[in-house]
Design brief:
Blueprint (H helix, E strand, L loop, with lengths): L1 H25 L13 E5 L12 E5 H8 L12 H4 L5 H14 L4 H8 L5 H7 L5
Antiparallel strand pairs: 1-2
Helix pairs in contact: 4-5, 4-6
The structure holds zinc ion (ZN).
Zinc ion binds next to strand 2 and helix 2.
């Protein structure tokens, strides 16, 4: 047990150490919906690795986090802004946007169309294939 706890704390320390760089990259706004003046938390794009990977982390707001956690039940219209975000130069933003759009695409024609126009390289495709839980 003690060992597991140590690992958990180590993970948290590593994630915390990403905070400053994420704040700089995000300009302290949500990296998905671009809301500013809201509290942001670190989100790890699945699959979550044993050791946190900065390139799989992004800063998102609570509304986006809750939407992702219940993505299958979410209203597709709330994700309209992702049509711009999937072109992001930031891999974590792009991959997470693709995952969300794929999760809603059976219920939203516009999402399926956006995905049709998108090209993913092999590495991006491999990452996006992990999907959301
Ligand atoms: Zn957001």
């Amino acid at each position: 047990m003690a060992r597991g706890l140590d690992n958990h704390n180590q993970r948290q320390d590593i994630l915390k150490s990403f905070g400053r760089d994420l704040a700089r990259r995000s300009g302290s706004s949500c990296e998905l919906c671009e809301a500013s003046g809201v509290s942001l938390e670190i989100y790890e794009v699945p699959p979550v690795m044993h050791e946190p990977d900065f390139d799989s982390c992004l800063f998102i707001c609570r509304a986006c986090k809750e939407g992702i956690d219940a993505v299958k039940k979410s209203n597709p219209e709330q994700w309209r802004f992702l049509t711009g975000r999937i072109w992001s130069d930031i891999p974590a933003v792009k991959i997470l946007s693709v995952m969300i759009l794929r999760a809603i695409s059976s219920r939203a024609t516009w999402a399926a169309e956006v995905l049709d126009d998108l090209y993913l390289d092999e590495d991006e495709e491999r990452r996006a294939a992990a999907g959301l839980i």
